[in-house]
């Protein structure tokens, strides 16, 4: 097994996952057992976090610098896509910006592996033209990210089983964006599985 320190960075989904695990003993610290007990995980999310915000990127990097993990898992871009100018060019622009940032972090902090989580659809948007348009661009973004990570052997794209592609409304809170307890359980399992694959 490679290094065992894993940092999870993102926006409110990571914040809420962290809180969910702290409040439910059976999920605390991903419930690692046996040989996996030595895995060290740290979660850091910024509510409303965007990679287009220099302040948010600085806070994420400060956490990365203080934790010095072996591996990094990120859940980015969902808030960046909720934009009135959302189109395929913007999808490519912010995806490329994220990849450039992650590439810099790999070089600066000697990260061994990077896992990027696929974006999740929403049932409500604040700035994009419509939910349908937003979710269509989410699919385009996920497809584009899949192409980008194929060229980097130490990078991977994590599919969030049950909470990506077509997200059932009953997995969401009334705000149409954040996961309820059922959705968080599925999200937890997907993230836990992604970490194990990263460490394999």
From TrEMBL:
- Protein name, UniProt field: Uncharacterized protein
Q: Whose protein is this, by species? A: Patella caerulea
